[in-house]
Specification:
mainly alpha, about 55 residues, 4 helices
């Protein structure tokens, strides 16, 4: 979460104002990423993530 906040240019606590946990952030991230790369597959395993875009 610290790296995400640093990359976004916000404080760590700002991330937690919008997302209660890392899992909540990832739940929001995957649909955004899939829409951006044109994929409709939601990863369910570590291999799905590493083999994805």
């Amino acid at each position: 979460m610290d790296a995400i906040a640093a990359q976004a240019g916000v404080q760590h606590r700002t991330i937690f104002r919008h997302f209660e946990s890392k899992e909540e952030l990832l739940r929001a991230f995957w649909p955004w990423l899939n829409a951006r790369v044109g994929s409709s597959v939601k990863p369910t395993t570590v291999e799905d993530v590493s083999d994805g875009p």
